[in-house]
Amino acid sequence: MPQVSQRRAIAVVDDDHSVRRATAKLLSLNGHEVHSFSSAEDFLRSEALGQVECLVSDVRMPGMGGLELHDRLLGLGRRIPVIFVTAYPQDSYRERALAAGAVGFLAKPFAGKR
Question: Which fold has domain 9-107?
Answer without folding.
Answer: Rossmann fold (3.40.50)
